[in-house]
UniProtKB/TrEMBL annotation:
<comment type="subunit">
    <text>Homotetramer.</text>
</comment>
<keyword id="KW-0472">Membrane</keyword>
<comment type="pathway">
    <text>Carotenoid biosynthesis; lycopene biosynthesis.</text>
</comment>
<protein>
    <recommendedName>
        <fullName>Phytoene dehydrogenase</fullName>
        <ecNumber>1.3.5.5</ecNumber>
    </recommendedName>
</protein>
<keyword id="KW-0560">Oxidoreductase</keyword>
<keyword id="KW-0957">Chromoplast</keyword>
<dbReference type="GO" id="GO:0009509">
    <property type="term" value="C:chromoplast"/>
</dbReference>
<dbReference type="GO" id="GO:0016117">
    <property type="term" value="P:carotenoid biosynthetic process"/>
</dbReference>
<comment type="similarity">
    <text>Belongs to the carotenoid/retinoid oxidoreductase family.</text>
</comment>
<dbReference type="Pfam" id="PF01593">
    <property type="entry name" value="Amino_oxidase"/>
</dbReference>
<dbReference type="GO" id="GO:0016166">
    <property type="term" value="F:phytoene dehydrogenase activity"/>
</dbReference>
<keyword id="KW-0150">Chloroplast</keyword>
<dbReference type="InterPro" id="IPR014102">
    <property type="entry name" value="Phytoene_desaturase"/>
</dbReference>
<feature type="domain" description="Amine oxidase">
    <location>
        <begin position="102"/>
        <end position="543"/>
    </location>
</feature>
<dbReference type="InterPro" id="IPR050464">
    <property type="entry name" value="Zeta_carotene_desat/Oxidored"/>
</dbReference>
<dbReference type="GO" id="GO:0016020">
    <property type="term" value="C:membrane"/>
</dbReference>
<keyword id="KW-0125">Carotenoid biosynthesis</keyword>
Length: 563
């Protein structure tokens, strides 16, 4: 679900403001901060400190679920172990990796585990890509996206364990909570009982909820899902050609099921509506959530992602002899006469050479930096259909503690908003007993990405008025805004529209010594943090498998892109 990612290490010429924004972050476009010019806002600072010393956090989270014995977790653990147990290379490869988002960090981590020497280049001065975050002048953090870590993310969960940071995930009760637009201020819950195994716990949660779907609608939806349950993965992949809306109607599922449940789910998964989203994406999520007992259980990171998740990965890479460099933006992929990579040319004029090269940037940046001689190769030409989707992340600090919320992720079911959370409740580092900070995903965002931040805040407040009718008014006659941050990502995760699956590339390219990593590359978790981490592992696996070829001297050549 919600956002994850890779970053650019690219130097791209400015074109109508697009390319500066495309790097998904930073100072000018992604990280604007504003303070509301009222006397009250000038006096109040949202520091979480009391006169008596450091704040004592009293949040109580759910214990970590038992994930270690699930098939997917064990499979992910086995892949991780294969790098640590791989024969030590006689000559470690120097692998140059562009982009220090989760895909690039994962690639570098597992290459280092296998005994190689990754050099990770990040264009900006912050780690994380689509999980990047910045600290404002008050010491408060604002993020690129609202990030949720699911039980159904086996490679991410293994990564936390391998780094010894399992305690940094704050697990929440096993529920999915939806706002009720027809009843402003009220919520409807799907509660998954721990005493039942999957899929019975999910079926029970659906059957027990009578506020969103009627019994006839539940039955028709269940009948519509039968082919997916019987057909398995082959059936799921075959549905890539249909949108969610088209598939539901084909299966005889009432439109109200889509309106009540799958608009919210589509926006949470890929920031677009059901008339655009490929049904394959929904079926993969449902499969993970219904087939794994703790698959849909959610956790929040206990603080800002660059420090609490990315830095432990960097420390691990460096401890094994790898390097991570910030402010290292790639200007050009320089080629040898045979068409293979000679070096990465950086914007400061320096060149970086290696034994192998990885691009772990968003697909849009890769496409802009592709050498002309590569563009007609089918492997790269198919990338034309893969395009990042725009998304906006909004943070609002209020002058009071809002009462109509939960210590959990909430599905807004708003026309403009996707999911949101009161981060002053859900996250230890952001905890504040006196004031709420709402973090909200504004999606679909295509029509809003070029609008002013004040327009976006005004529209958000109108939606919040419906979610908090007793506490928030659009004109701020109730709760007052102390400050806000608006983070725009014009090109986030790739847009999972129908017929994209055949265009997703394998991690090993047809150019010898050149590899890809990122959520858009071929792996079964699509556009997600889990997909990014798994893509990095697959990329590392390909490089380890190609060791003898890469270590040998002599010119490279074109090779087949194989699994």
């Amino acid at each position: 679900m919600v956002v994850f990612g890779n970053v650019s290490a690219a130097n791209l010429p400015y074109q109508n403001g697009f390319l500066e924004a495309l790097t998904s972050g930073g100072c000018e476009i992604m990280g604007h901060s504003f303070r509301i010019p009222t006397s009250q806002s000038l006096k109040i600072r949202t520091k979480r400190r009391s006169a008596g010393g450091p704040l004592q956090v009293v949040c109580v989270d759910i214990p970590r679920p038992e994930l270690e014995n699930t098939v997917n977790f064990l499979e992910a653990a086995s892949l991780s172990a294969s790098f640590r147990s791989a024969p030590r290379p006689a000559k470690p490869l120097k692998v140059v990796i562009a982009g220090a988002g989760l895909a690039g960090l994962s690639t570098a981590k597992y290459l280092a585990d296998a005994g190689h020497k990754p050099l990770l280049l990040e264009a900006r001065d912050v780690l994380g890509g689509k999980i990047a975050a910045w600290k404002d002048e008050d010491g408060d953090w604002y993020e690129t996206g609202l990030h949720i870590f699911f039980g159904a993310y086996p490679n991410v969960q293994n990564l936390f364990g391998e780094l010894g940071i399992n305690d940094r995930l704050q697990w929440k009760e096993h529920s999915m909570i939806f706002a009720m637009p027809s009843k402003p201020g009220e919520f409807s819950r799907f509660d998954f009982p721990d005493v039942l195994p999957a899929p019975l716990n999910g079926i029970w949660a659906i059957l027990r909820n009578n506020e969103m779907l009627t019994w006839p609608e539940k039955i028709k939806f269940a009948i519509g899902l039968l082919p997916a349950m019987v057909g398995g993965q082959a059936y799921v992949e075959a549905q890539d050609g249909l949108s969610v809306e088209e598939w539901m109607r084909k299966q005889g599922v009432p439109d109200r099921v889509t309106d009540e449940v799958f608009i919210a789910m589509s926006k949470a998964l890929n920031f677009i509506n059901p008339d655009e989203l490929s049904m394959q994406c929904i079926l993969i999520a449902l499969n993970r959530f219904l087939q794994e007992k703790h698959g849909s259980k959610m956790a929040f990171l206990d603080g800002n992602p660059p420090e609490r998740l990315c830095m432990p990965i960097v420390d691990h890479i460096r401890s094994l002899g790898g390097e991570v460099r910030l402010n290292s933006r790639i200007k050009k992929i320089e080629l040898k006469n045979d068409g293979t990579v000679k070096s990465f040319l950086l914007t400061d004029g320096s060149t970086i050479e290696g034994d192998a090269y990885v691009f772990a940037t968003p697909v849009d940046i890769l496409k802009l930096l592709l050498p002309d001689s590569w563009k007609e190769i089918p492997y790269f030409k198919r990338l034309e259909k893969l395009v990042g989707v725009p998304v906006i992340n909004v943070h609002i600090w209020f002058d009071r503690k809002l009462q109509n919320t939960y210590d959990h992720l909430l599905f807004s079911r708003s026309n403009l908003l996707s999911v949101y959370a009161d981060m002053s409740l859900t996250c230890k580092e952001y905890y504040d007993p006196n004031r709420s900070m709402l973090e909200l995903v504004f999606a679909p965002a295509e029509e809003w990405i070029s609008r002013s931040d004040s327009d976006i805040i005004d529209a958000t407040m109108k939606e919040l008025e419906k979610l908090f009718p007793d506490e928030i008014a659009a004109d701020q006659s109730k709760a007052k805004i102390l400050k806000y941050h608006v983070v725009k990502t014009p090109r986030s995760v790739y847009k999972t529209i129908p017929n994209c699956e055949p265009c997703r590339p394998l991690q090993r390219s047809p150019i010898q010594g050149f590899y890809l990593a990122g959520d858009y590359t071929k792996q079964k978790y699509l556009a997600s943090m889990e997909g990014a981490v798994l893509s990095g592992k697959f990329c590392s696996q390909s490089i380890v498998q190609d060791y003898e070829l890469l270590a040998a001297s002599g010119p490279g050549k074109l090779s087949e892109a194989t699994v």
